[in-house]
Design a protein that fits this description.
The complex is a heterodimer of chains A (318) and B (474).
Chain A: H1 21-44, E1 48-51, H2 56-69, E2 78-82, H3 88-101, E3 105-109, H4 110-115, H5 132-141, E4 146-148, E5 165-168, E6 196-199, H6 207-217, E7 228-235, E8 238-241, E9 254-260, E10 273-274, H7 280-289, H8 294-298, H9 308-315
Parallel strand pairs in A: 1-2, 1-4, 2-3, 4-6
Antiparallel strand pairs in A: 5-6, 7-8, 7-9, 9-10
Helix pairs in contact in A: 1-2, 6-7
Chain B: E1 15-22, H1 28-38, H2 44-56, H3 80-85, E2 92-97, E3 102-107, H4 115-123, E4 127-133, H5 140-151, E5 156-162, H6 171-192, E6 202-205, H7 229-235, H8 239-246, E7 250-252, E8 255-257, E9 277-281, E10 286-287, E11 292-296, E12 301-309, E13 322-323, E14 327-332, E15 343-346, E16 352-363, E17 374-379, E18 382-396, E19 401-403, E20 413-426, H9 433-436, E21 437-441, E22 448-455
Parallel strand pairs in B: 1-3, 1-4, 4-5, 5-6
Antiparallel strand pairs in B: 2-3, 7-15, 8-9, 9-14, 10-13, 11-12, 11-15, 12-14, 16-20, 16-22, 17-18, 17-21, 18-19, 18-20, 21-22
Classes of the chains: A alpha/beta (318), B alpha+beta (474).
The complex binds guanosine-5'-triphosphate and magnesium ion.
Chain lengths: 318, 474
């Protein structure tokens, strides 16, 4: 019998030193699973597209897509639902990445729908929940039949319930009470005209897995994921950046702190955390020691109610 | 010789998948919550949310280290209707890691109405933790879930006899349930395959509510000589991953990668002008450059000229292998009509090509199955039309025997004969899970109707039936 290099026996030398060997191999399994899912969806659907916001999860997902089809190029367009309140460095990163990979970018705009009166600004100024309408419209206008999302089951209790391939009805709605059975790795993407499917290749990844993978593969992210100095103020127990869409009230003093972001969403509802983690190694350490979930720490939109995410998802949100 | 770090990242069994099972209210979600809680896998904001809701609903009986009443089931029962009704409706996936292993935990519903979701959670599990309320003992749902786990050949079944606190930690009560469950397990195995090699399930007395024997062995069950649940789970061998590597090669082709579709910006155009790569995830066995493979369906063989694992930035060199579970792109010396739906197999022990199959079914749809039903048969990366010609039996959950049946109803387990519009290369599910598994799909609305486990007669000859496609031409 041929001998192999027996890779599982060789202790890995890895850039992310906090990892045990056990972590390495679990990650390889997650990668192989994600690539399998991406290929299945591309093979079985006519018009797939991938959501790409420039956030770490979607960056990892796009990286996996590039691997899945290499040396071919990624065979579908990417979609961004722009709230109009994005961090400029994230938009710059988005455009640069799309350009580097030679992809087509489709942008759905919250601002345009507000300007045309079809959407109304919320009293709290938060725009993340407003993304559902432009998302569904973009899907319908482009006749996308499968849309990849970077949602992970460990993010939220409602997301923990979702299938890897998740059917949406003609109104884009998710019905968590009657999901299709999903058996083994046989993904059934059949749907009727007007319906579409959301596909979640990194469902089974945790925040730590995502960071391990970023470190391991040396994936570039928008700079605000790493500790940097920023002018901020405090609101509702969160650290908010001072910026064009996020202004302190007169009784909210500002200061310059060293912070980083654990998620990047809309500037109007995403908070930063105090951090010294200027590189992947330090971020990994920080995430491994975190005592609060990423959404609990930094997302005002998920604090709206106990079932905020479930309600948004039922309406067709990411 | 220098080795790039990426070269050591091969998959192994360190990501371990668990699913819960057992009748409604036997304590599955509470146990999952307890495992997460005691393994310190719950972050403070999640815990605070659970404590708040527990207090609001007057959940007072819990017993926690800091004496804070916690309804631990709320950690997984994340849907609004689940919290309102106090039951689990669909599978919740949770993740936690110990020093030894990373776990994916699928908390499944117990209610008979949601059995399809329990089958979903069980289908990918390396181990099932079956809960039994010590006060009720083995009930019909216990038998159904055990039958599902047995049918799906989940590698390990651990039985947690729960709520041992509610019977004052009585050994007699535990032993009675233990004996009962071992008998049922034996009968189901005999019923399913007559497989002699199967070991009896491990049975553990636990209190999910109070944490006895969950992470640590309890002082209150001194009569129990075994280990607590978590250490047991940490030590279970990942036999499935091991087996899959030993099996003969099976690589279902997912898609063909060709430069005509556009090259990746970092791929050198001159090196890929005539490139034709077959992409897939190895279902079983190992693959090395230089191997000969058979292209199924059919008898053509070809040499594997290059193998690229997705976790490496280069082709494998001679002597290196890609293993079951890895996603790869392969190039072949000949390209006889290889496409999505093709299966690359070991030449010496290829899959059997059949257009008529005996399939064990877990029927998951309200619409009953009757002979004459036209369905879609999804297997690997192929989907073909199929006709159910006969239903031979149905498992009676009371007597645990196969009974003749005219139809299969929601949640039934039974056996049917299926005629396929085209021959497919298949394996017996017991020999190779990935290439022995199938779905039955409703061609009208696309719904998944059943999990199908292919059962091949033990015959050794490679007799292949002729394909006959005219009966279904539409
Ligand atoms: N006394 C006692 N009660 C328990 C124990 N475990 C769970 N319970 C209670 O049993 C009830 C049902 O618990 P769950 O965890 O929701 O049961 P389940 O099996 O997940 O139920 P479904 O998912 O709906 O099938 C709750 O009231 C729990 O508090 C235990 O070890 N002892
Ligand atoms: Mg439950």
């Amino acid at each position: 019998m041929n001998t192999t290099t027996a890779p599982e026996q060789a202790p890995p030398t890895r850039p992310d030193s906090v990892l045990s060997a056990a972590g390495t191999t679990a990650l390889a399994r997650l990668e192989a699973e994600a690539i399998h899912i991406i290929r299945e969806v591309v093979a079985e659907f006519d018009r797939p597209a991938m959501l790409f916001s420039g956030g770490k999860d979607s960056v990892v997902m796009l990286h996996l897509a590039a691997k899945a089809f290499w040396p071919g190029k990624i065979p579908f367009p990417v979609v961004h639902i722009d709230t109009g309140h994005n961090f400029p460095e994230v938009l710059e990163f988005r455009d640069r990445t799309v350009e580097r990979l030679g992809l087509r970018l489709v942008v759905g705009s919250v601002q345009e729908l507000i300007d045309s009166g079809e959407l109304q600004e919320r009293a709290d100024g938060t725009r993340n929940p407003l993304q559902t309408v432009p998302l569904l419209r973009t899907i319908a206008e482009n006749r996308f039949d499968a849309v990849f999302g970077g949602a992970r089951r460990d993010e939220d209790r409602a997301r923990a319930k979702e299938r890897i391939l998740s059917l949406r009805d003609e109104f884009g709605q998710w019905d968590p009470r009657s999901q299709r059975p999903e058996l083994w790795n046989l993904y059934n993407g059949r749907h009727k005209p007007g319906q579409h499917v959301r596909a979640f290749p990194i469902s089974n990844w945790t925040e730590l897995d995502v960071w391990r993978y970023i470190a391991y593969e040396n994936i570039e992210l928008p700079p605000l994921y790493y500790a940097h100095e920023r002018e901020v103020f405090h609101r509702d127990g969160m650290i908010r950046a001072v910026g064009p869409f996020s202004q302190p009230a007169p009784d909210e003093p500002t200061e310059v702190l060293q912070v980083r972001y654990r998620t990047v969403g809309d500037m109007s509802c995403t908070g930063a955390v105090l951090s010294n983690a200027v590189n992947n190694d330090l971020v990994l350490r920080e995430v491994a020691e975190a005592t609060v979930t990423e959404r609990g720490a930094t997302r005002a939109d998920d604090r709206l109610s106990e079932a905020a995410m479930e309600d948004r998802k039922k309406d067709g949100y990411f | 010789m220098t080795t790039a770090p990426a070269e050591t990242a091969a998959p192994s069994g360190t990501l371990f998948r668990l699913a819960t099972a057992g009748s409604v209210d036997d304590g599955k979600s509470t146990l999952v919550g307890r495992l997460l809680h005691d393994a310190q896998a719950i972050l403070s904001d999640q815990l605070a949310a659970v404590a708040r809701t527990s207090a609001e609903r007057g959940f007072g009986e819990a017993f926690d280290a800091d004496d804070q009443p916690l309804d631990l089931a709320l950690l997984t029962d994340g849907l609004r209707s689940e919290r309102e009704q106090g039951i689990t409706i669909d599978v919740a996936y949770r993740y936690f890691a110990t020093d030894k292993r990373s776990f994916v935990l699928a908390d499944c519903p117990g209610h008979v109405q949601y059995t399809r979701n329990t089958v979903t959670g069980t289908s990918t599990a390396d181990a099932v933790v079956l809960l039994v309320d010590v006060r009720n003992g083995v009930v019909e749902q216990t038998r159904r879930h055990l039958a599902v786990a047995t049918l799906l050949r989940v590698e390990h079944i651990i039985v947690a006899v729960n709520k041992i606190d509610a019977v004052d930690y009585s050994e007699a009560a535990f032993r009675a349930v233990e004996e009962d469950i071992q008998r049922v397990a034996r009968e189901l195995w005999a019923q399913n395959s007559g497989d002699a090699a199967v070991t009896a399930p491990i049975v553990v007395p636990v209190s999910a509510l109070r944490g006895d024997n969950v992470v640590n062995v309890s002082e209150r069950t001194r009569w129990y000589s075994g280990e607590a649940l978590l250490p047991i789970l940490e030590q279970l061998p990942d036999a499935d991953a091991e087996h899959r590597r030993q099996e003969p090669l099976r690589l279902p082709v997912q898609t063909v990668i060709r430069p005509q579709g556009g090259l990746a910006p970092d791929a050198d155009p001159d090196s890929f002008t005539d490139f034709r790569g077959y992409a897939g995830q190895i279902a079983a066995g190992t693959l090395r450059p230089g191997d000969r493979v058979r292209i199924q369906p059919g008898h053509h063989t070809a040499e594997v000229t290059a193998v690229r694992r997705t976790d490496l930035q280069r082709d494998l060199v001679p002597g290196e292998a890609a293993l079951a579970g890895e996603s790869v792109v392969v190039e072949l010396s000949e390209n006889y009509d290889v496409a999505r739906g093709s299966l690359l197999s070991a030449v010496e022990s290829a899959a059997q090509e059949r257009d008529e199959l005996t399939v064990r079914l877990a029927w998951l749809h309200e619409k009953p199955l009757t002979p004459g039903a036209r369905v879609l048969f999804k297997h690997g990366t192929a989907t073909v039309k199929a006709l159910v010609t006969e239903i031979s039996d149905r498992l009676d959950l009371t007597t645990l025997t196969a009974q003749p049946a005219a139809q299969l109803n929601l949640n039934d387990i039974g056996t049917a004969t299926v005629k396929l519009a085209a021959a497919l290369p298949v394996d017996d599910y017991a020999a190779s899970k990935r290439t022995g598994a199938s779905l039955l799909i409703d061609p009208a609305d696309g719904n998944t109707l059943a999990a199908g486990l292919i059962s091949l007669p033990q015959a050794t000859d490679d007799a292949e039936t002729e394909t006959d496609e005219d009966w279904l031409s539409s």
